[in-house]
Amino acid sequence: MQLIINFLRNKYFKFGFAVTIYLLWVIWLNNYWFFLGIPIIYDIYISKKVNWSPWKKRNVKNSVFIEWLDAIIFAVVAVTIINIFLFQNYKIPSGSMERTLLVGDHLYVSKVSYGPRIPNTPLSFPFAQNILWGNVPSFSTLIQWPYKRLPGFGEVQRDDIVVFNYPEGDTVSLEMPGAQSYYSVITYRIQELKANDARFGRKRKEAEYFEMARQEIAQTNTIVFRPVDKTDNYVKRCVAIGGDTLLVKEGEVYINGKHQKEIDGKQKVYCVHTNGTPMNTKTLEELNINEKDIMVDGTDIYIPLTRENLEKIKHFSNVVSVETIYDRAMRRPGDFDISIFPHDERYQWNQEFFGPLYIPKKGATIKVTLDNLPIYGRVIGHYEHNKLEVKDNSIYINGEIAKEYTFKMNYYFMMGDNRDNSLDARFWGFVPEDHIIGKPIFIWLSLDENKSFLGKIRWKRMFTKVKA
Predict the structure, then answer these.
(1) Measured between alpha carbons, how far is 453 from 465 in angstroms, rounded to an integer?
(2) CA distance 394 to 99
(3) Sign of dihedral through CA atoms 418, 423, 425, 431?
(4) Are 222 and 173 within 8 A, CB to CB?
(5) pTM assigned to the model
(6) So what CATH class is 247-328?
(7) pLDDT tens-digit profile of 346-359?
(8) Which of 21, 46, 102, 427 is 20 to 30 A from 402, alpha carbon to alpha carbon?
(9) What distance in Å separates the CA atoms of residue 285 and residue 419, rounded to the nearest whole number?
(10) Beta-bridge partner residues of 223
(11) What is the gyration radius of the CA atoms in the chain, in angstroms?
(12) What is the C-alpha end-to-end distance of the chain, expressed in Å?
């Protein structure tokens, strides 16, 4: 036994083990410049010419403070590497995925499921997404690396639950609420400017309206720009992948003409007509219905319900009838909602009736027209870094007239399982592949914000698998 222990402590064994792990990592990165790190590993374990921990003195007993500092630095470096390449914790902040995922669920998100990304913004404070405190950013853009994804175990599939960077989070007003998109504010202001001009018989070019709205907002707001990997993290279900055609009809999703498979945790808001008797709070709690999600309007109660809870609530003694939101004529086919992607009156879409919409696929070529530019313009110009212009009713890409365009990346369409209470792709469009972070594997902790002390812990949800 002692012989084995001495062998494991041998500096040459430690060096060989460390360099083997390092070589496998370099091969995975596919960047052989990192081979230059082998002499450093040799010096750490064998030659020991350089003190790679300058805060710590060699061959003498260091103070407790220095020992703790050394342990903290090692832990921060180790956890940062793990977060980049293996997995990361993610907390559910809102109810957009209920009842599949609940507010307060802490997820283990695998980076290797789809392959980890090399950071676009390497100069970043550990464990902070984009803000340190107040309006102080947690990163520097002095160094920006291009998008690169390492090999993983697979690719994003339909119905996967995915964590990704919010696509419209690249431009943010620090004065606006976190969930409100800067682009949606621009869109609303353009509509107001158009309506005002229409009253006075004026008309301008689209570019003029955009510039006017942009300048107005810039005068009253602090606008900041964030790299892809520093936008806020979102979690949704991927309902369509590149090459699919998506249609939402009466709130139901159809992919390539076929109804999406039934999702157990999916819920929609229903109008429950009662005889005037209030709902029993304890009964609602047993159905896992959050009291904060309920809106009361006289004898009508608006409640988000899963298919299972819908059948149960129909049989309550105080329930007269139940109907969906669109049955209430709140959303009908052809009812235009400016907040819905692509925010253009040529597409009379809303949350319940949306599409058909083709999802861009890498290598696929489409015809580019003035009519479909509202849908694919951001993909071409922003996500794929082309210079996109419209002059004299002609479309120019990188200075040349374009009739067609071939996509460089795959794109995805993400929706929340809480279909009527989800800020998802119906509002902001496609998720590019370079925004994909990882796949939630299991819930390692779940806390109910409405309860206290040990009652906050949802014991039954701990270490349960995230069901797709």
Answers:
(1) 25
(2) 47
(3) negative
(4) yes
(5) 0.88
(6) alpha beta
(7) 999 999 999 999 99
(8) 427
(9) 21
(10) 173
(11) 27
(12) 48
